[in-house]
Amino acid sequence: MNRAEALKIVERQLTKKRYEHTVRVMETALDIAGHYQVDRQKVELAAIFHDYAKYRHPEEMKRWIIQEKLPHDLLEYHQELWHGPVGSVMIEREVGISDPEIQSAIYWHTTGKRNMTLMDKIIFIADYVEPGREFAGVEEVRGLVFENIDRACWLAARNTIQFLMGKEQPVYPDTFQLYNEKIGRNMNG
Ligand SMILES: Nc1ncnc2c1ncn2[C@@H]1O[C@H](COP(=O)(O)OP(=O)(O)O)[C@@H](O)[C@H]1O
């Protein structure tokens, strides 16, 4: 599937604003991918489809989580966290994309996790730093993306955890695991 075909499919699933965000994530992800040995075509597809399930009705997403035997604990957390895992299986069933690397990057793009692949990291961090993002601390992360993608992902996880805890919101544990994984290493290099 080429870029134009993929964009046409997701455009129908998203609002105009979310579609524009998706295009910026694609451009950012490809920019980052240019610095690494990674399959650029897969990065492009993962970025284009990362929010594919974003606007499905929560009841529909709930059905997918149950029927596809996705982790049941997702249902205890905010619906915002469902579209990554659900989107990763929806693109296989509805669009015919069955590539584990692409599906993994879509699955984990919101929370991150420990042991992310390079492709997982690129999509996770491109979603965080795309030029439309304005949250506190994003500039520091942007500055690090090309220099040290692991530290950039770690900082994004730390910022998200701090933000959610500041609002006394629950934090899905995989983001803590990403945070913990990196804290034990030398993060200055
Ligand atoms: N570990 C987590 N636990 C709970 N909420 C989280 C976690 N990680 C991210 N979030 C929240 O999920 C939402 C993701 O939104 P956003 O990144 O805008 O969506 P998208 O991933 O579709 O681009 C944000 O409100 C963010 O704070």
From TrEMBL:
Residues 14-141 form the HD/PDEase domain. InterPro entries: Diverse_Catalytic_Enzymes, HD/PDEase_dom, HD_domain, YqeK. It is an enzyme of class 3 (hydrolase). Its EC number is 3.6.1.41. It comes from the Bacteria. Keywords: Hydrolase, Iron, Metal-binding, Nucleotide-binding. GO terms for molecular function: bis(5'-nucleosyl)-tetraphosphatase (symmetrical) activity. The keyword Metal-binding applies. It catalyses: P(1),P(4)-bis(5'-adenosyl) tetraphosphate + H2O = 2 ADP + 2 H(+). Transmembrane segments: none annotated. The keyword DNA damage does not apply. PANTHER family: BIS(5'-NUCLEOSYL)-TETRAPHOSPHATASE, SYMMETRICAL, SLR1885 PROTEIN. This is bis(5'-nucleosyl)-tetraphosphatase (symmetrical). It comes from Gracilibacillus caseinilyticus.
